[in-house]
Amino acid sequence: MKVFTYSEQETKTFGKMIGTYIKNSGINVIALYGEMGAGKTVLTKGIASAFGIEEKDIASSSFVIASQYPEVDFYHIDLYRVDNIKEEELDLWEYFEHGTCVVEWAERLNDLPEKTLKITINLVDEKIRVLEMEL
């Protein structure tokens, strides 16, 4: 399925729709793919808002790999800086099994749970995004 968004706000709104859907779907991992600046963190803000997490609390990670929001069992995992870290050292499966996880730069993982919503974000221009989803 493909969805087009035409602004940052539309991307966030669509993210909130995704978050609302997955809360009761049995899907607990959302894997985000896309180049730098594609809108992965913007989409994550929207998804997190469906869990009651404020936009200001979600940031593109500089050095924090996993941000935890235990009050709602939500985890924001940003793998941008993990080129030289082995997957088993991260123990991401612990997160995957205990809450809802949004994983930015998911292409850096070799393995994901079976029930993972994969979203690739392609940049058309400065404002337009194409989000391709696969379950």
Summarize the structure in short.
With 135 residues, the protein is α/β, with parallel strands linked by helices. It has a single domain (2-134), classed as 3-Layer(aba) Sandwich (Rossmann fold).
Query: Which overall shape is indicated by the principal axes computed on the Cα atoms?
Result: globular
- The CATH C-level name is Alpha Beta
Task: Give the overall average pLDDT.
Answer: 89
Number of strands: 7
Give, in order, the helices and strands.
EHEHEEHHEEE
SSE class: alpha/beta
Counting H and I runs of at least 4 residues, what is the number of helices? 4
Cα end-to-end separation? 10 Å
Q: State which percent range the strand residues make up.
A: 25-35%
- CATH-scheme architecture: 3-Layer(aba) Sandwich
CATH superfamily: P-loop containing nucleotide triphosphate hydrolases
The fold-level CATH name is: Rossmann fold
Unreliably modeled segments: none
Give a quick account of the main beta sheet: strands, pairing sense, barrel closure. Answer: 7 strands, mixed
* Count of domain modules: 1
Query: What's the gyration radius in Å?
Result: 14 Å
| Adjacency order of strands in the biggest sheet | 1-7-6-2-5-4-3
Q: Helix fraction? A: 25-40%
Please give a handful of descriptors for the protein shown.
135 residues, alpha/beta, Rossmann fold, 7-stranded mixed β-sheet, 4 helices, 27% strand, globular
Structure notes:
The protein is an alpha/beta fold. It has a single domain, classed as Rossmann fold. The chain has 4 helices and 7 strands; from the N terminus they run E-H-E-H-E-E-H-H-E-E-E. Helix 1 crosses helix 2. The chain starts with a strand and ends with a strand. The mean pLDDT is about 90.
